[in-house]
Amino acid sequence: MAKKFKTTVQRYNPDMDDSPYFEDFEVEYEPGMTVLDALLYIQDKYDSSLAFRWECRGGQCGSCAIKVNGTARISCRTKVNPDKDILLEPLDKMPIIKDLVVDMAQVTYRIRRIRPYVARDKPPQRPEIIQAEEIEKLREIRKCIECSACLSNCPIVAETWDYPGPMIIRQLARLQLDPRDVEDRVSMALDEAVYTCTTCKMCEDICPKNIKIPSLAVELLRAKAVEAGYPLAAGQQGFIDSINKTGRSVPEKDAPLLQTTETEEFLVDTPQGRVAFFTGCLIDYRMQDTGRALIEVLNRNNVDVIVPKEQWCCASPAFRTGDVHTGKAAAVRVTEIFEEVAEKYDLDEVVVACAGCGKTLREDHRPIIEEMRGEPPKFKVYDLAEYLLDVIGEENMVKPKGRIEMKITYHEPCHLGRGQGVVDQPIELLKMVPGVEYIEDPYKNRCCGAGGGVRAGLRDLSMKIATTKKEYIEKTGADMVTTECPFCTIQIKDILKGTPIETKYIPDLLAESYRKGDKK
Amino acid sequence: MEYKTIVCDVLVVGAGGAGCRAAIEASNHNLDVIMLSKELLGKAHTSMAEGGINVALGNVDPKDDPATHFKDTVVGGNYINNQELVEILVDNATSRVYDLEEMGAVFDRTPEGKIAQRPFGKQSWRRTAYASDRTGSEIMVTLVEAIRKSSVRVFDEMFATKLLVQDGRIAGVTAIDMKYGDYLVFRAKAVVMATGGAGRIYKVTSNAQLDVGDGYAMAYEAGCEMIDMEMIQFHPTGMTRPESAKGRLVTEAVRGEGGILLNSEGERFMKNYYPQVMELAGRDQVARSIMTEVIEGRGSPTGGAYLSISHLPKRIVEFRLESMIEQFGDAGVDIREEPMEVSPTCHHFMGGISIDTDAQASIPGLFASGECMGGLHGGNRLGGNALCDTQVFGALSGENAAKFAKEHSLTGFDREVAKQEFDRVEAMLQRKDGISPADAREELNNLMWSKVQIFRNEEDLEYAVKELKRIQKEVVPKIKVDVPIKRFNPGWHQAIEFAHMVTTARMVAETAYMRKGSRGAHYRVDADPDDKGYYNIVIRKGDDGEMDLKRKDLVITKIQPP
Which residues are within 8 A (CB) of B528 and not within 5 positions of it... i.e. 6 or more apart? Predict the structure, then answer.
């Protein structure tokens, strides 16, 4: 007997149905089966009128993008897990024609609006000499098959068509990078709202061609804009000026963590590890208790923590908004500081408290340093949860004992999940706390709207994205949402004001459980 | 049935490589051009072409020239190509490839910054220009960019069902709007057919969903002369597993870059068949060699051969065969480390609508290009010549359709014929008892795969012809649609397609049955040794409504058959 699984498909024929509805089908599993195979099975066995698009079944044509369990993907390259039911819906933002087939007119119109071809001011010589290096950068970005899945998943497009979406911004970058194109693609990108992207990487994550749209397109176009002298939004420039002046992106308010800690060294009796702690601006200047909690959690797990007194901003706000100059300077400075500490204290692991900083150290600093001196930074970067579970290991951890009787959900920071590949570890930490009932949010990995300079530069849009996030969180019915990034924490706290739902940074929650456990 | 009429100067049916190129060319002549696409713009089968496009630039091997390209194409085609058409192909390939580059295509480069070229089967020199192993996609993306710049009006998800002919001249087509189910007549002064192939009449194929032979059937029914329909290319390397990926193309570039074929005993068996050229023998030759190994018990577990590239540096594989890494990665095979399992898959129709040197079919005002056109590739198409065909003949058909449209006024059309066509497709929706298209298609696929395949014989072909006549008479009129709605109903689309598939399949079987000797891709195990096969077979719809087959002399300009 072949294994069967349930496939729920959204049906809708506007001629006959008042509104969309769902229909369940039993599908027989076959090894290697894709979502497209499941749809073809349903069409063959149950209902030949079920409408969905497909052509090549090999990830080359880009016809078959639909929402699979809430996330848009091309169905021919999405494998079925026979142990899980699947839910299939049409792409978001596009009007439904029938069932899973949507009207792509808006996309076509938006593409045509950007003059999406190599514009020339004179006919080329034949043959045209083009060096391989000139088109090397084009190779990746040109693989797009226009499946439009990224448009459906984009949190900005979800709020406004002012932004044409990742796929179309990518085409602008493709043309900007083409040595033959004579149009001013930078001003065009500004007109197409390139600064509205939060760099949440949802597009990159589901792209069937793995195109790194946030870095190869969005940040590239922003960097070209800065280079061309276009000013940043006041809020964004404020951060960058502050970084260059003080090494911190925000002004001092309460007594900073690094100034109030009396020592660099937080050592334990029998260490099973030793790390340096990169605090980031918000922990140092705004969330000092969280910083202390993080040190405490590590110490309780018998890990020595070194907190260098002199630290410098990772310059994430500069990288995200296109100020490459500030970004590079910060990369050099941060690397110097932590390599010095690593040598002095004989360690090679750095725990970063903030998802944005961690992503920046890994994805931005590392290649820059490697390109500059032919060798990457001499230390490895970890998120707290990742360090505890992957390096120390669950069996060597000292578990928290104090009960916290709460329903708790989790917001996965974009720059932790998709930025650093840390997805399950924070949730495992949560589940370790006695009394916690963990509630899975199917939209836990959706952007809160803070990143990419959007909170700083476009507060209204940022709040709209956050409001959508709030709806997802409220739907879980949890008493508390936890996360692993100070920036997300601040944004979510803001939007949840006036609701009974608490927002907490995971080290704080852990420290609370440890302290409660001590009292018993 | 009610329908709406849309008028233009030049109508292009099909929106793949040839259709887009024809539409762009025609629109350069200050004419109103409509392009009908059965799929969304840019999703055509051309995007699945992988290895490259042949053009004798001589960038890597300076001795290459169009004359050698001509010779390779004719020898590779087993001498039955229309040599006038081959001359057009080789003489225009360079300009058409530069056109693509001017439109924005990004081909891989030589160290001097010229277009790089790789070796492909049966070619004297490294001639195949490429963009990694996604050349078709690169060309499709480029043409779509150019269409978006042009004045061409694109009607996508529009299913053309019948050619309208008035007083011996083309008048337009009937079509169904797949999105909303409306009936439409498109009238034009000239029509270009660029409807692609029909791999889907076979059970195992590399072709996209839409390649069901609409164009062959429409042209035949309208009275066009069709040529070389028995010549079907089975690409030697299709995927064998998983089931859902069966038949998916494994590009010839794998062998071009140095991939070797092994049997279950680890023997590089091509040395027993074609020791001079080994894996780069003709596609028909490699396909037969693999199948012989399988039949004689030296096949892989899934009934194919092993194709290995793991002896090459990983960097080269990653740079030049990126799609293959992705495609086999999905099947759990890392081609940098392990061999692929491959077996033949129905890939390309060498035959099709017969054209003259203006790309005009036997109906005035009707032009054809790309895979739906026949005669150019003879008995076997060289890898890399299909993309070249789409560009050279796409442009030629577009240009001559434009000329025709300028010289002629719009002709009228018989409203009764249009009405009858819409009544016919409407009847499928109303039919209560009958046969579902899914079942009918399965029967057809199996019949063609088992009886009109790589190794052919008299008995199988006779049976196939008889069966196809029966299917045409008994099944086609009984096709019914389960759910009688017109709005985006794939069941209805398949029902309409089925008649086209059967007509196409019958042309293949009838011509294969008529040709008693082996020639090119048409291989008879019981070949008549007296039939050297140096002729073409053409088909027309006879006055009695039956298929009228004739032998026709070869068109030779330079190379005499041996």
Answer: B516, B517
